[in-house]
Design a protein that fits this description.
With 192 residues, this protein is α+β, with helices and mostly antiparallel strands. The chain is built from six helices and three strands; from the N terminus they run ααααβββαα. β2 and β3 form a beta hairpin.
């Protein structure tokens, strides 16, 4: 079933349905977190994301720049899927001060010939006569297409490595338009 979600996400991207693609992409760490931890809740999402995605999102050797941590993406997931807003709730970020983002922006971009997309992060500090005045301002822009591609690649890699962990899918989806004649045979086998 995970593969079907990824396939639908890619179709949405191909048709420039960015929010539909993002909604599916933001579900993928939930699915993989369930497969790995067999638990419910926020922790499985954040733990799986940080282990399989987030650690690669950090700028190497720079512990000051905001990045897409599990907490940041979980906050985006909750705001986006439950409220329809692409907000990052700064107060939800507890583990890493550098990820308390002040301004967050989604970027949408048509598919390019290289299929390479980028995010950007910045920190603004106000300095007068060598003294920092006020607080820093952290900005992060995430490219929807890039986030979808990264999450789907990581989820696919996890699925290929641990397919037996995805045994919690206990239903069947039937494509009525493309159903083959042995559908009833497969259903009978499932019931017996």
């Amino acid at each position: 079933m995970l593969l079907r979600w990824i396939e639908d996400m890619n179709r949405a991207l191909d048709h420039e349905c960015y929010f539909a693609a993002l909604a599916i992409a933001l579900m993928l760490p939930d699915i993989c977190g369930m497969a790995k931890y067999h638990s419910k809740g926020k922790a499985r999402y954040i733990d799986w994301f940080d282990e399989y995605v987030g650690r690669y999102e950090k700028s190497p050797g720079d512990d000051t720049m905001p990045y897409l941590s599990g907490e940041v993406v979980y906050s985006l997931r909750c705001s986006f899927l439950h409220q329809g807003t692409p907000n990052i709730q700064k107060e939800d970020i507890k583990n890493e001060e550098i990820c308390k983002i002040d301004f967050f922006r989604l970027l949408i971009e048509k598919k390019n010939s290289f299929d390479i997309y980028s995010d950007s992060a910045s920190i603004s500090r106000f300095i007068i006569n060598g003294n920092e005045i006020g607080s820093t301002f952290k900005r992060y822009e995430v490219n929807v297409r890039r986030l979808c591609l990264v999450l789907s690649a990581c989820a696919m890699g996890y699925y290929k490595e641990f397919p037996e962990q995805f045994d919690f899918f206990n239903y069947d989806v039937v494509d009525v338009d493309n159903r083959n004649d042995n559908y009833l045979e497969r259903w009978d086998k499932k019931l017996s």
